[in-house]
Amino acid sequence: MSNFDQFHLDFYQSNYTIDDQEEGYNSYGSNENLCGSRKNQTGAQPPASGLAPSEMLLSSQSYTGQILQPTYSPDTHLSYADGFDEEPPLLEELGINFEHIWQKTLTVLNPMKPADGSIMNETDLTGPMVFCLALGATLLLAGKVHFGYVYGMSAIGCLAMHALLNLMSVSGVSHGCVASVLGYCLLPMVILSSSAVVFSLQGILGTLLALFIIGWCSLSASKIFTSALAMEGQQLLIAYPCALLYGLFALLTVF
Predict the structure, then answer these.
(1) What is the DSSP string of 48-79?
(2) How far, in Å, CA of 17 to CA of 228, rounded?
């Protein structure tokens, strides 16, 4: 081999080794870049298991209250307080108004006093129940156990008067209103039964007193019905069936 050929061969081998080294450097740099990019990606996107606690913390931080213990809000507390202050008393919610009971009682005791239709049109049964019990109790003191008769005649009388008043009036009337008026007007009959405890009513004096009490009860009831139902000029027509009803209670008291 000549010197010229040997020179070309050495030159070729040197160029080949330089190219291999450059390719190695390039491949190593590309691997480093690839590894770096993967590291960056893994750093930018944390695993899903690491995200779950943070999301739970965010969701838990959005709700500041506790179970069965909501977050305190002064506006809500004030609204509740205002609502409690504006609520009516318990007795009024139950339909027990002592002022109205007293006004109805005075209206019955004074037949000449004009009745307030707005008050008398209420379905108040507290006073009637008390007067029915008082009538039965005074009859019991006189030796007459007539609680069943008192309740039975009261129920039948209320149904009959309800049907009659609905036929006579334009606006109509409820069962509660009829029972309330008839029950309140039973108060003079309690006075008659109380007097029967002291002396006997089976005589002329007792008969006159019973007739007076019957007229008193029927006049008060008819006055209240005419004012509550706007039935002017029909008081005598209403007083007649009321007198028949209270006459039955008078018979229980006298005999």
Answers:
(1) HHHHHHHHHHHHHHH---BTTBPPP-HHHHHH
(2) 124
pLDDT band at 113 (very low <50, low <70, confident <90, very high): confident
Q: What is the pLDDT of residue 37?
A: 47
Chain segment 189-247, per-residue pLDDT in tens: 999 999 999 988 888 999 999 999 999 999 999 998 988 888 888 889 999 999 999 99
Which pair of tokens denotes residue 114?
Answer: 């004009």
Dist CA 134 CA 190 (whole Å):
7
Residue in 189, 126, 179 with CA at minimum distance from that of residue 155: 179
Asked whether 194 and 139 are in contact (CB, 8 A), the reply is no
Residue of 183, 186, 167, 177 whose CA lies nearest to 247: 186
Q: Decide if pLDDT at 58 tops 50.
A: no
Token pair in block for residue 230: 């706007």
What mean pLDDT comes out for the span 37-66?
Answer: 48
The domain locations on the chain are 124-254
The single residue listed with the structure tokens 């019905």 is 225
Judge contact between 205 and 189, C-beta under 8 A: no
Going by C-alpha positions, the residue among 72, 59, 126 that lies closest to residue 99 is 126
Spell out the residues 6+ positions from residue 57 whose beta carbon is closer than 8 angstroms to its own.
none
